[in-house]
Amino acid sequence: MIRSNKGQRAEPTQRPARFPWLSTTLIPGSRLNEQQASLLAVLHASARDSVPLQPLIRALSSEYPGRYSATLFKLSSLLNQGVPWIEALEQTPDALPSDTVLALRLGLQGGIVLPTFEQLRHENAVALLEQEPSLLKPALVYWFAVSLVMFYLLGLFNLFIVPTLLRMMEEFDLRGAGYNKLKLVLSYAIFPALISLGLTALALVLNWSETLRNWIGRLLGRPANSEQTRGALLRMLANSIEFGRPIGGTLSTLAKFHRDASVRKDLLVARNEIEQGSDGIGALESVGLLTPKEKEALVDQSAKNQAWVLRSFADARISPKQYRWAKWQSLLHPLFIAVFGITVLGITSAVLESLYGLISVLATDTNWR
To answer: What SS3 state is found at 19?
Structure first.
């Protein structure tokens, strides 16, 4: 709408939208990592161009439906309350990956936040372009659907068919092997489908939420010092080394803000060794972040070359998730089939044996044979 008065310049005015939800996508059309890439780009633009961040995050939240929209809205609310952007990110799980937030914290502490943003966006773009279709989620959805159908059919079988057959066999006083097998079926047949349904539902929930995965990992005592964690740490160290930041200060910041206690302990040990006179590369080797051969490749190199080598080591340590899942799928898929096959075989055997006993009695009573 354009408002104009005589003798005055026409000025555009914006009519407030009556239904703001009409401008959003009601069905999610992008993956979480793609949504997080958009947020990272907005954060980078705000830091680079000195643009207020809170309105940008609020506008971005309207572009995504569902859970991520709520996450961005929470982040925007924290910023509106005056919380610094890095602390707001740390208080908003799943807004960005935890390793990305830690890298930004390290860049902010070291005064290299813009180079850190540029490096993270480069790595993010490469990961998005090279990502393979996920094999895990379709497999989980498939087995969840199979388990749900099996649970429904076995529930119907246990609630109606088996009790009816048992009552008929009791009336004909048939309490032999077929009767006992049916009693066994009534007691245990539904459990394989129930266990499979519960496990696949849990796996889908864990696949959906990184926060829940991390919480359960900490609850079960699973160490986070994995190859993926080490690779992320090497990337952060590479960025600090490239811009001349001391390794000791970098390790102190990482040890203070890393989410895993065992990793924090290793980082503090490496920092203490540096303070006692050890060189930074040797300290990283002593806590397992580098192997002896990797240490040799870094000795007597310039800071730029060391950064490049460290990033190469990080790339080599992180294997694609779909390959790891393909290995487990080759083991789990036949196992699921075997469990359901044995269940169906046991049920079929019990039903056929009971029916044979009933038919034999009926045929004898009616002089059919």
So the answer is: coil
Cα–Cα distance measured from residue 214 to residue 220, given in angstroms and rounded to the nearest whole number: 10
| DSSP track, 40-86 | HHHHHHHHHHT--HHHHHHHHHTTS-HHHHHHHHHHHHHHHTT--HH
Rounded Cα–Cα distance for residues 215 and 259 (Å): 11
Q: Measured between alpha carbons, how far is 295 from 302 in angstroms, rounded to an integer? A: 14
Q: How far apart are CA 280 and CA 314, in angstroms?
A: 17
pLDDT digits 0-9 by tens, 179-214? 777 787 777 878 888 888 888 888 888 777 656 766
- The least confident of 48-57, 193-202, 203-212, 280-289 is 203-212
Q: What number of CA atoms fall less than 13 Å from residue 90's CA on the CB side?
A: 13
Best CA proximity match to 274, nearest among 306, 239, 237, 247: 247
| One-letter amino acid of 304 | K
Q: What is this structure's pTM?
A: 0.67
335: tokens are 């196992």
* Single-letter residue type at 359: I
Checking phi first, is residue 40 left (phi over 0); if not, alpha (psi -120 to 50) or beta?
A: alpha
pLDDT band at 77 (very low <50, low <70, confident <90, very high): very high
Distance separating alpha carbons of residues 149 and 74, to the nearest angstrom: 38
The total number of residues written for the chain in this structure: 369
Q: Where residue 215 falls among pLDDT bands split at 50, 70, 90? A: low
Is the distance from CB of 229 to CB of 217 less than 8 angstroms? no
Measured CA to CA, the distance from residue 291 to residue 287 in angstroms comes to 10
Q: Give the residue ranges of DSSP H helices in 243-320.
A: 247-257, 261-275, 280-286, 292-298, 303-317
Q: Which of 350, 342, 367, 355 is nearest to 150 (CA)?
A: 342
